[in-house]
Amino acid sequence: MSKTLARYLPDVLSRVKPDLVLYDAGVDPHIDDRLGKLALTDTGIFRREMQVLSTCVGAGYPVACVIGGGYSVDTNALTYRHGLLHRVASDVFRQYRL
Fold first, then answer.
1. Which of 8, 54, 65, 81 could join 27 in a cystine, given CB atoms 3.0 to 4.6 angstroms apart?
2. What is the pLDDT of residues 2-61, one digit of tens each?
């Protein structure tokens, strides 16, 4: 997934030039999700969030993020996965001093 994002996201942003990026950071692609089929690990979710946010913010586009998806019976694991977005956002926004 990270290679696909790295290849296409910057180009999409430069072509569209959005006033705002709305990012639905669903965690259903997780390997332990009942409905997801992409088999991402917690590390994979973290890397996806980092790549999306740092690419958008680094290019000067504001981002509004929401958590979404996640169909796990383990609520602690699901909460952790959703929390990854907030950890990454804190790191990215601190890096760019927004």
1. 81
2. 789 999 999 999 999 999 999 999 999 999 998 878 899 999 999 999 999 999 999 999
* Pairwise CA distance, residues 14 & 55, whole Å: 11
pTM for the full model?
0.91
User: Where along the chain do its domains lie?
Assistant: 2-95
CA atoms in the 13 A half-sphere facing the CB of 44:
15
Neighbours of 37 (CB within 10 A): 8
